[in-house]
């Protein structure tokens, strides 16, 4: 009885969290007519998914594919760069008592509390003075910063790398870089994958930064591009209908890569996501 | 090394090369090399913009007057500006409701998941987490469609009962409409944090309680919840920082909300409008800086108040 209650409760939660996703999948298979007239919003009406995909990828000279490519570039380079920088810093903070470490780390902790969007407008003005706005660097460079990732990696490094192992490697004559690469890094791998996922997701999903930094639509990332389309679709009601079908199928496509990443890497992040909060 | 050992075999433990204090100190400076790339990024994209925002906010730029020193004028203007105050009040009010709601949903989901094992548990955990992987822009658009009075399912279901569903983006309901979007988006992520904290609890505690006659709900409320308290504190901080910067969801829903989401709806939307529609970058910087300061203050106060309980920075 009790178990049944637990299961029913869970199923209700799953239904709630899946509802919009289910709707997205169903709506992606409808054409404009099926979407806007009559049929149930939560059930299929004809199957036009491939037709919609074809329209999506060819609309406005393949604008969407360009945005997809941009998103991959921004999230890939920004996310990977952020991970490398944060892992190195976390390792450095955890293993070496260098001069000024505690002051530096206190600054990192303090900056976790600074809302990053508050920095976007001043960064825009700085970049615009340097002629960097409306380039890919305007999106990639600020994405390299994640004080929280540094904090996570420090905690993770401190907990997963035994001092004895490092000392043993030193006695065997290994250099500090080699110790990092051959002893520290393999032990930190689940944490590294988590930080990589988190930073890729936050760059992929970011809206405020690219919206402010980019003005030419050929540099847009997916969220900014889809935001633009939704603005256009609301502005002109008639031709807007066919644009809405593209927005919907485009939304579905933009969600797929991250869902696959989370599914395939779940054994890493399910443990890693919590490393900051357990201690 | 081998030489040393063969010549003085009597006290080998003392002769294995222990580095001297000065050597250790020298080696420790390598930490700077590891942290250097981060230091560069930290200064370039956090310290510099922060200082620059502070600097910009002390000046005003007029078409006729050029750039003039304004002192704290931009700040007195911000705090006296009904638009800024309105936005700030909205996000504060919104945080006050959305944070407990998210924590409650996340806690409930995690406690339920902790009760069972097997395929359903694994599946549910993934599905509840799924919205985290959906960009905020897409999440807002999907819910916008679901809310739609002309073809959304809410309206279709309501029409079966011959009633009219409330339009969740109308002037009076937009608060709840957004509340639902944000709760949907983030609860799964917070659920994972709490769930892992639950998994970290020593199971003998539950067995002991069960022998003493405690029921499952009692164990959940009296043992599990207090033990995951630090995780809830972490969630509160994240959630507070995120909500005060509220931007993407209301910005996207503005198109279809028929004017109930105004250009001064949240401080970030207002800063965006001020900078890019009115080209007042100095005033926008002052707004950003003030918002950042409010967030910093709110989070700092919370951490100071709970410093003895443990949590993120202990």
From TrEMBL, chain A:
<keyword id="KW-1133">Transmembrane helix</keyword>
<dbReference type="InterPro" id="IPR000515">
    <property type="entry name" value="MetI-like"/>
</dbReference>
<keyword id="KW-0472">Membrane</keyword>
<feature type="domain" description="ABC transmembrane type-1">
    <location>
        <begin position="68"/>
        <end position="264"/>
    </location>
</feature>
<keyword id="KW-0813">Transport</keyword>
<feature type="transmembrane region" description="Helical">
    <location>
        <begin position="136"/>
        <end position="158"/>
    </location>
</feature>
<keyword id="KW-1003">Cell membrane</keyword>
<dbReference type="Pfam" id="PF00528">
    <property type="entry name" value="BPD_transp_1"/>
</dbReference>
<dbReference type="GO" id="GO:0005886">
    <property type="term" value="C:plasma membrane"/>
</dbReference>
<keyword id="KW-0812">Transmembrane</keyword>
<feature type="transmembrane region" description="Helical">
    <location>
        <begin position="103"/>
        <end position="124"/>
    </location>
</feature>
<protein>
    <submittedName>
        <fullName>Carbohydrate ABC transporter permease</fullName>
    </submittedName>
</protein>
<feature type="transmembrane region" description="Helical">
    <location>
        <begin position="242"/>
        <end position="265"/>
    </location>
</feature>
<dbReference type="InterPro" id="IPR035906">
    <property type="entry name" value="MetI-like_sf"/>
</dbReference>
<dbReference type="GO" id="GO:0055085">
    <property type="term" value="P:transmembrane transport"/>
</dbReference>
<feature type="transmembrane region" description="Helical">
    <location>
        <begin position="72"/>
        <end position="96"/>
    </location>
</feature>
<comment type="similarity">
    <text>Belongs to the binding-protein-dependent transport system permease family.</text>
</comment>
TrEMBL record, chain B:
<keyword id="KW-1003">Cell membrane</keyword>
<protein>
    <submittedName>
        <fullName>Sugar ABC transporter permease</fullName>
    </submittedName>
</protein>
<keyword id="KW-0812">Transmembrane</keyword>
<keyword id="KW-1133">Transmembrane helix</keyword>
<dbReference type="InterPro" id="IPR000515">
    <property type="entry name" value="MetI-like"/>
</dbReference>
<feature type="transmembrane region" description="Helical">
    <location>
        <begin position="125"/>
        <end position="146"/>
    </location>
</feature>
<keyword id="KW-0472">Membrane</keyword>
<feature type="transmembrane region" description="Helical">
    <location>
        <begin position="88"/>
        <end position="113"/>
    </location>
</feature>
<dbReference type="GO" id="GO:0055085">
    <property type="term" value="P:transmembrane transport"/>
</dbReference>
<comment type="similarity">
    <text>Belongs to the binding-protein-dependent transport system permease family.</text>
</comment>
<keyword id="KW-0813">Transport</keyword>
<dbReference type="InterPro" id="IPR050809">
    <property type="entry name" value="UgpAE/MalFG_permease"/>
</dbReference>
<feature type="transmembrane region" description="Helical">
    <location>
        <begin position="174"/>
        <end position="198"/>
    </location>
</feature>
<feature type="domain" description="ABC transmembrane type-1">
    <location>
        <begin position="88"/>
        <end position="302"/>
    </location>
</feature>
<feature type="transmembrane region" description="Helical">
    <location>
        <begin position="227"/>
        <end position="248"/>
    </location>
</feature>
<feature type="transmembrane region" description="Helical">
    <location>
        <begin position="283"/>
        <end position="305"/>
    </location>
</feature>
<feature type="transmembrane region" description="Helical">
    <location>
        <begin position="30"/>
        <end position="52"/>
    </location>
</feature>
<dbReference type="GO" id="GO:0005886">
    <property type="term" value="C:plasma membrane"/>
</dbReference>
<dbReference type="Pfam" id="PF00528">
    <property type="entry name" value="BPD_transp_1"/>
</dbReference>
<dbReference type="InterPro" id="IPR035906">
    <property type="entry name" value="MetI-like_sf"/>
</dbReference>
């Amino acid at each position: 009885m009790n178990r049944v209650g637990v299961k029913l409760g869970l199923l209700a939660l799953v239904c709630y969290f899946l509802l919009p996703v289910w709707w997205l999948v169903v709506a992606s298979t409808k054409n404009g007519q099926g979407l806007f007239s009559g049929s149930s919003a939560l059930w299929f009406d004809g199957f036009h998914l491939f037709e919609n995909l074809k329209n999506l990828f060819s609309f406005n000279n393949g604008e969407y594919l360009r945005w997809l490519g941009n998103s991959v570039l921004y999230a890939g380079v920004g996310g990977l760069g952020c991970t490398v920088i944060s892992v190195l810093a976390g390792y450095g903070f955890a293993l070496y008592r260098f001069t000024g470490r505690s002051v530096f780390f206190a600054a990192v902790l303090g900056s976790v509390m600074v809302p990053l969007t508050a920095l976007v407008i001043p960064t825009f003005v700085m970049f615009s003075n340097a002629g960097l706005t409306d380039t890919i660097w305007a999106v990639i460079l600020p994405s390299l910063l994640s004080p929280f990732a540094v904090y996570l990696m420090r905690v993770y490094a401190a907990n997963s790398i035994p001092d004895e192992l490092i000392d043993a490697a030193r006695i065997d004559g290994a250099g500090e870089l080699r110790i990092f690469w051959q002893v520290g890094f393999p032990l930190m791998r689940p944490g590294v994958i988590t930080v990589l996922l988190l930073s890729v997701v936050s760059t992929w999903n970011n809206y405020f930064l690219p919206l402010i930094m980019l003005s030419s639509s050929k540099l847009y990332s997916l969220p900014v591009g889809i935001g633009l389309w939704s603005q256009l679709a609301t502005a002109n009601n008639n031709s807007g209908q066919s644009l809405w079908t593209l927005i919907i199928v485009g939304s579905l496509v933009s969600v797929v890569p991250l869902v696959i990443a989370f599914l395939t890497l779940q054994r890493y992040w399910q443990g890693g996501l919590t490393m900051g909060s357990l201690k | 090394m081998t030489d040393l050992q063969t010549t003085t075999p009597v006290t080998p433990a003392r002769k294995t090369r222990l580095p001297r204090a000065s050597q250790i100190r020298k080696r420790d400076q390598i930490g700077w090399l590891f942290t250097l790339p981060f230091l560069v990024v930290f200064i370039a994209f956090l310290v510099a913009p922060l200082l620059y925002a502070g600097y910009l906010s002390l000046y005003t730029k007029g078409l006729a007057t050029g750039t003039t020193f304004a002192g704290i004028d931009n700040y007195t203007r911000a705090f006296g500006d009904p638009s800024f105050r309105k936005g700030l009040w909205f996000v504060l009010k919104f945080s006050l409701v959305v944070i407990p709601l998210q924590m409650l949903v996340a806690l409930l989901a995690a406690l339920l998941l902790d009760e069972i094992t097997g395929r359903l548990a694994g599946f549910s955990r993934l599905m509840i987490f799924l919205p985290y992987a959906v960009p905020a822009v897409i999440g807002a658009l999907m819910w916008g469609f679901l809310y739609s009075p002309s073809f959304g399912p809410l309206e279709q279901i309501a029409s079966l009962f011959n009633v009219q569903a409330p339009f969740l983006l109308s002037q009076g309901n937009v608060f709840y409409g957004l509340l639902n979007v944000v709760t949907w988006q983030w609860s799964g992520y917070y659920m994972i944090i709490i769930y892992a904290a639950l998994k970290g609890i020593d199971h003998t505690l539950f067995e002991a309680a069960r022998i003493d006659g405690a029921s499952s709900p009692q164990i959940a409320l009296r043992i599990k919840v207090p033990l995951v308290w630090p995780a809830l504190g972490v969630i509160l901080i994240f959630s507070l920082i995120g909500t005060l910067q509220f931007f993407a969801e209301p910005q996207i829903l503005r198109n279809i909300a028929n004017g109930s989401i105004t250009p001064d709806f949240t401080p970030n939307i207002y800063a965006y409008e001020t900078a890019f529609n009115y080209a007042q970058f100095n005033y926008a910087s002052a707004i950003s800086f003030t918002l950042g300061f409010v967030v910093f203050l709110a989070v700092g106060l919370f951490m100071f108040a709970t410093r003895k309980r443990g949590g993120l920075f202990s």
